[in-house]
Amino acid sequence: MANKLKHTIHLTALVAIFAVMPALAGDTTPAAQLAQWETTAGQRGDPTRGQTFFTQKHGKAWSCASCHGAPPSKTGEHADTGKRIKPLAPAYNDTAFTKLAKTEKWFRRNCQDVVGRECNAAEKADVLSYLIGVK
Amino acid sequence: MSHKKTNGSLAGSLLCVAAIYLGATAFAMADEDHGRRAAQVINNPLYQQECAACHTAYPPGMLPAASWGRIMRNLDQHFGRDASLEPEAVAALSQYLAQNAGTSRRVQTAPPEDRITRSDWFIREHREISPSTWLRAGIKTAANCAACHTTADKGNFDEDFVRIPKR
């Protein structure tokens, strides 16, 4: 009986730890965000298209790679300020694309700087499928 | 207001300690302004998270409140970049910057374009740096404080911690 109670307490503690973990580590995963954008766009993310989008300029001074590098598996450098930027590829940075609000904020701002407008779901799916594939 | 006073007395205490430690009281007194700015530790996690993602966490005391106000009202056109934030974050950061903005005589006038790097004191402090030095790959721009000020991320711009990249 005592043993069973102990077991239950351990189990409760474990459940509690796992319930808190997502809040600490983030509230989503790269794969979940990719799936979300693919659903919204009605098409699969295309890594080749994503790579082109990421590395080419879109009529403005910067490409995504201007700050994040290509492939973005190493520490990047802000093109204006020289500030170091963590690798964007999830394989090289376990916090990349794990917070919904953070991802939305950076896509919104950086697409304005690179493309001059917000990016659509298809473009985001392409780019993220490329980034997930960077090993 | 009380926050500023705390900063001031903290800076004062640090200066006293530094003076005793170095045994150079006269130097410390003459360099009082420098010491006060160097001692402004950035202890605001939101400021670190949102502002220091792209650039050095510039000590709020390096600009007057009027400059910070303009900067925070125009984050979508932030020195040519979109740095817009959620309204809640803008409000919290604006308050922090207003409370900790520079009030000393040399900081009270807004620099051209509200750029720290165009302040008279900034230009004066860096007058020995040649134009070609600024352009080194390891520096790039005067906005890149941490390239030379190795403790800039801690709000410490003391000359003792300056290491100028050779390339």
Salient structural properties:
heterodimer, A: 135 residues, mainly alpha, Cytochrome Bc1 Complex, Chain D, domain 2, 57% helix, globular, B: 167 residues, 8 helices, 44% helix
Strand sequence of the main sheet of chain A, in spatial order? 1-2
Q: What is the H level of CATH, i.e. the homologous superfamily of chain A?
A: Cytochrome c-like domain
Head-to-tail CA distance between termini of chain B: 44 Å
The overall strand count of chain B is 0
Largest interface: A-B, 12 and 21 residues
Reported for the largest beta sheet of chain A, the result is: 2 strands, antiparallel
Count of the domains of chain A: 1
Uncertain ranges of chain B: 1-8, 14-38
Question: What is the gyration radius of chain B calculated from CA atoms?
Answer: 16 Å
The overall pLDDT average of chain B reads 82
- How would a crystallographer describe the biggest sheet of chain B? none
Element order of chain A: H for helix, E for strand: HHHHEEHH
Which oligomeric state applies? heterodimer
| SSE order of chain B, one letter for each helix or strand | HHHHHHHH
Poorly predicted runs of 5 or more residues of chain A: 13-23
How many DSSP H or I helices of chain A?
A: 6
